[in-house]
């Protein structure tokens, strides 16, 4: 029996086809009043994937405007190219008559070729680690009462941070710009849900969790710091090999530079000892004058 959280995630990532190359998606409150970037990434990928039978190998996206969780989002797909090796699509997410997001998605079938990958990082295995919920519960004494419900809201995917001393988001201290966790859906995807398109969309969905905030760590800030304005600017995903969203994936992240009120973050996903996916994201990190 599939849990409600997984069912809701599948529902959110299942689009209504309005006509050829045009789809409609709905939102859920994942992070607040604005649409969660991972949701738009995943829905856009699903829209593009519906126009081809090949798996995606890369997605390059820009977040242009904040999305409204109370209104549906229309996704328009432009078929740029259907080649022998690659299929190219452009996706626009439209809300209130304005483009709030745009992405280029490339698809390609698997083929034999040269093989090399970076060494697998040495981390504890998932069964040796505590879940995010248990770690959050240990921090409740630091959480203001008004934020406790939203802070403990259960995610639609399961997370296990690699370091058991999970960071105190309410009293952050400067630390190295590295972070890693294991991630997967709460349930196995079977039957009609066991498709490449859905697995890749779920990976796109959770690729946006925490990645941007890695660049805040060396500054002693978190996304809950009152003097910081954070927002995703762009996001790229590369699918190197087949990946299952319902089996543990090690998501290893690092920030390489912060400058001009922006932070550059890189991520690598490992599954069964293979580097299966890479991500890159630049995020806004603007300091605000609280006395102004």
TrEMBL record:
- Give one GO molecular function term: fatty acyl-CoA hydrolase activity
- Acyl-CoA thioesterase 2 C-terminal domain ranges (all copies): 167-284
Annotated Pfam families: 4HBT_3, Acyl_CoA_thio
Q: Which keywords does this Swiss-Prot/TrEMBL entry list?
A: Hydrolase, Lipid metabolism
Q: Which InterPro entries match?
A: Acyl-CoA_hotdog, Acyl_CoA_thio, HotDog_dom_sf, TesB_ACOT8-like_N, TesB_C
Q: Which reaction does it catalyse?
A: a fatty acyl-CoA + H2O = a fatty acid + CoA + H(+)
> Which is one Gene Ontology cellular component term of this protein?
cytosol
Q: Looking at its record, which EC class is this enzyme?
A: hydrolase
Known EC number: 3.1.2.20
> Start and end of every Acyl-CoA thioesterase-like N-terminal HotDog domain?
31-108
Provide the GO biological process annotations.
Answer: acyl-CoA metabolic process; fatty acid catabolic process
Relate the assembly described in the record: Homotetramer.
Which family would the database say this protein is a member of?
Belongs to the C/M/P thioester hydrolase family.
Can you say what this protein is called?
Answer: Acyl-CoA thioesterase 2
Q: Which organism is it from?
A: Acinetobacter apis
